[in-house]
Amino acid sequence: MDRPIPIPCAHDKVFWEAVAEDRLVVQKTSNGNWQSYPRAHALDDPMKQNAAPAFEAVAGTGTIENVSVVHRSFYPAILAPYAFAVVRLDEGVCMTCHIVDAEPSEVRIGDRVKVTFIEIAPGKKIPCFKPIEASLAT
Amino acid sequence: MDMNLLSRAAIVGAYESPRRKANDIHPFQIFHEVIAGALEHAGLTFADVDGLCVTAGDVGEGGSTEDVIEVAEYLGISPRFVDSTDVGGCSAIVQTARAAAAIACGMADTVVVAYAACPRWFPLGPTNPMSWPVGPGASEMPYGISSITAYGLYAARHMHQFGTTPEQLASVPVAIRANAALNPNALMRDPISISDVLESRMISSPFHKLDCCVVTDSGGAVVLTRRDRANDLRKKPIRMLGYGEAIGCIHTNQVADFTASPGLQSGQRAFNAAGLTPVDVDVAQFYDAFSITPLIGLEDLGFCKNGEGGAFVASGAIGAGGSIPINTDGGGLSSNHPGKRGVFVLIEALRQLWDESPGLQVKDCEVSLAHGIGGFFSAASTMLLARS
């Protein structure tokens, strides 16, 4: 396969529908805890005694928790070098992503980033992150 | 695990295939070779075997789903106990503990734990992914994860948080290559320097090519039997003093701490069960798919403090004459790594106790440690061993 394309299913359909519209949503449990990736149950309520977790809009900003620059890609449609990163959203949960609109070798742990949406196949987008310019960061 | 379970079984034989490139050889042929080799080593035959533990369901291992049945069918045996627990690279060590428990409970008398794979030539592929881009894996697979990148994240975070340097990381493959130079079966035997590692091609930062393991076609097996039957066999029986296992996460976005691993828990469980501490260990085999893997393993198990692994591995402690020689056969970084090298980690830990290491034999070795890792620091198993 040229690259893996995400295929939505019942429990994460809302997430991928939002991504298709350039919006980032994350699940929040009835106890007020954020959780990601999406699940059909709340991690803090595994017996489903309360309402199911609901998708809520998030700021889409975060900090790079970790990054590795991939120089040898195993997928023909993912061109190296690329910055493979884990971003911790300001809400506290982590997302795997690419850091785009940046020179991969200059991406650093601790950098502030903002979500952006990249089309990887016709009609198929995935959330990625890009640097927040220092001058714009507060 | 209850010490009584471990003490009712003993490891009585082991064999590592000398093969490193096995073009056209089906992995099941190697399964047969290594099981026969381990039985011969123990002074047993296939007629004695009533338990079989394998993972063979990954591409390169030759099997499909229900893989343990397919391997048993090929071998021509009908064991009354089987286990195909698959937690990645450390599966064979995990299965060895399962085998000991099965023997203690009377489910089997003599169990073979085997592994073989031929990733260099196997005509189907690529290797199975850790997950699919549907469900949990949709959060990660679209971004092109590989084991090199996943472990690279652990190394990158260690460097960021503790100031670990590329030179310190490189001292791991350099030390292990020195052991491989002594092992006639090791794939790579020419000594290397820190600068050789740093000047090799960058694959996924911070890993250069020589921070990464070799890829081989090979296999290995160990044999366990009832403790009360072990004394009249060919080799001195090996006792399992303590064992622990733990699992963590498969997806990088779920990792709580990139500077530790489930090895922290598996190590504590093994040392507690044995009533030992790291100073009691004479020689240790650490899973070494990448330079960071033994470094974090040494920290997790308490051979040095969390964050101090870089200075520790660069100090000479892990080499010949050091306080804790590791990967004495050349490990996965230089000798043998078909995909799940936990069986070789265990075999070399055993060979040290039998005075049969093909690489750096530690003199008067009494307590030997095997520490396996699976997935992306996703599973860990630790076993402490001694001669009976």
From TrEMBL, chain A:
Domain called ChsH2 C-terminal OB-fold: residue spans: 57-117
Gene source species: Allomesorhizobium camelthorni
InterPro entries assigned: ChsH2_C, NA-bd_OB-fold, Thioester_dehydratase-like
Domain of life: Bacteria
Protein name as it appears in the record: ChsH2 C-terminal OB-fold domain-containing protein
